[in-house]
Amino acid sequence: MASSPTAAAAEDAPGLRKIIHVDMDAFYASVEQRDAPELRGRPVAVGGSAARGVVAAASYEARAFGVRSAMPSARAVQLCPELIFRRPRFEVYRAVSQQICAIFLDYTPHVEPLSLDEAYLDVTRDLRGIGSATRIAELIRQRIRAETGLTASAGVSYNKFLAKLASDQNKPDGLCVIAPARGRVRGQPAGGAVSRVGPRGAEKMAGLGIATGADLRRLDLATLRQHFGAQADYLYRAARGIDLRAVMADRPRKSVGAERTFDRDLSSGSVLRETLETIIDLAWDRIARADASGRTVTLKLKFRDFSAMSRARSVAAPIATRVALAEVARGLLDQVLPLPQPVRLMGVTLSALDEPGQDADAGATAPGQAQLPF
Known about the structure:
Blueprint: H1 5-9, E1 19-24, H2 27-35, E2 44-47, E3 55-58, H3 60-63, H4 73-79, E4 84-86, H5 90-105, E5 111-115, E6 118-122, H6 133-148, E7 152-157, H7 160-167, E8 175-177, H8 190-193, H9 198-207, H10 213-217, H11 221-228, H12 232-238, E9 255-266, H13 269-289, E10 294-303, E11 308-319, H14 322-336, E12 343-353
Parallel strand pairs: 2-4, 7-8
Antiparallel strand pairs: 1-6, 1-7, 2-3, 5-6, 9-12, 10-11, 10-12
Helix pairs in contact: 5-6, 11-12, 13-14
């Protein structure tokens, strides 16, 4: 892996895309610290009350104490007694996200937002003719700092998987480049590099003696299918740095929502109801950003033993407000309480979407050039 942009920029790769993954640093918490100078340098959590809420985001000062997103607020306070809680201000986060997206669009029309605080950019042919994905990432990070007062980390590579992996390497406020010659995930921990395996997949990897990407790459596809089923093909490709997905601007959506895995299993009905409100806030933030409305709300619960339960309800009129979403989601939770065992994950999703017209092919093809200096 190349952590030095200078070294990586010297490598040429014929016929490959140039992809940037930009990830804001502790976005919600950083906005709160920016707007309230007295919070700067102090541990801050965005989320519900300390008694029953869930942490939606934590500043780096809070993370130093072990505070993480999706952690029960009571546990967060135990880890960091000086933790300062702020209620989410999604309208502010959304406005800042729009500022950041406008910066992206100065360099490429091929922008695929993943959430308010991260996005993929395909700069194979950038609008300004800069030619270097590394330089574009540097310029974007500089402009984000100058125009919003916030910091962002970026990863640069030739596909989405590696670009996202790179953006995690030098956080916060860092830049990492994975050039084509270094594309295989060698010494990286397998569970961290191959991020979609989940806790159960990580346990299987440990049982098979898989600790790094190189360990994973030693297994053939048949063996992976035997142990990981539908995930096997993804794991096989990811361990070899292969990801053929294109950056999709305004990609069509089938559903929009949010889910969180908790540090500690939850069982109390009152705590689950309070937690549901945080999940609804996160889901509605994404729904509003997508300008989506839909008719079906699904509540997802995953239990301590990894078994899952989902309940869905469809309504006649499209759900277009948080109030309407919350009413249905609360009803779904009330239907299943009390639960048979504690919950480790909760999610709320809106589907049967009726969205504004989209160009599903936007960004799907980004022709390569003869030489792509990273």
